[in-house]
Amino acid sequence: MFDILFSDSECLAVDKPSGISVLRDRSGQENLYAQLREQYPDAKLVHRLDKGTSGVLLLAKTDNFRKSASKLFENRQVVKFYVAVVSGRFPMGKTYTINLPLRRGRKSRFRVAGLRSDIQASQHGWTIGFQDGLVSVTKVRALQHGPRRSLLLLKPVTGRTHQLRVHLSWIGHPIVGDSLYGAPKSASQSYSRLMLHSHRLILAEGYNITSALPEGFTEALQD
Predict the structure, then answer these.
(1) Residue 138 φ/ψ, nearest 5 degrees
(2) Of 59, 139, 174, 202, which cross-links 155 as Cys (Cβ 3.0–4.6 Å)?
């Protein structure tokens, strides 16, 4: 099931649980959209979240809102904040920029358009010496450290598929529980779910929707 974060005549925002696909996938398991349509038959998706990602998911109740919101997402006029627990001690004290272009890799994966050895770290963040692939930019700030993990606030400037997961993995801080882009059997990364949460969504029309940090994030940080 799901909790309602916000609802009016135009849109609906739900708190997506981790571990359920938004749409039907190869597993054949029930998807969140099918559940939502039972209660809100006119609801239409405006964006998506990965199966393992929890948090704010926005749907439209009217065609006008769907069109306007979709345009905002397309034009990067939606401000999105995520929270993640990652392996390692991420630098504290400032906001860093990960500016690493992405391209499609093998088996539905994505990768940085270049070699790991080409990635350049500086006091401002991470970049690469040439621009090939799709421009992909993420703002990152560390909120807290645990013994071997960090809690991060993430702001994707662009919205590429798997962008946050790929960016963090390629700079050496894979998201805890990420079996696709990390080493989930390692002690610092092993966990029962993907520790990535859609925390806040801000639309130009005045919508500002927040989902609280789920249970388990504090505990995962201290493991």
Answers:
(1) -135, 135
(2) 139
138's CB contacts (< 8 A; 6+ apart) are 97, 98, 154, 155, 156, 157, 158, 163, 164, 167
Q: Which long-range contacts (CB under 8 A, 24 or more apart) does 178-182 make?
A: 178/52, 180/109, 181/109, 182/87
Sign of CA dihedral 185, 190, 193, 194: negative
The fraction of the chain above a pLDDT of 70, given in percent, is: 97
- On the question of pLDDT at 29 being above 80, the answer is no
Which amino acids are annotated catalytic?
Answer: 50
pLDDT tens string 135-177: 999 999 999 999 999 999 999 999 999 999 999 999 999 999 9
Residue indicated by tokens 């949460």: 197
CB-based burial, 19-40: b 16+ in 10 Å, e otherwise: ebbbeeeeeeeebbbeebeeee
| Helix, strand, coil abundance in the chain, percent, nearest 5 | 15, 35, 50
Does residue 215 register a pLDDT over 90? Answer: no
* String of DSSP letters for 121-135: E-SSEEEESS--SB-
- Between 95 and 130, where is the model more confident? 95
Residues 6+ apart with CB under 8 A from 11: 46, 58, 59, 60, 61, 65, 69, 207
The owner of tokens 């990364």 is 189
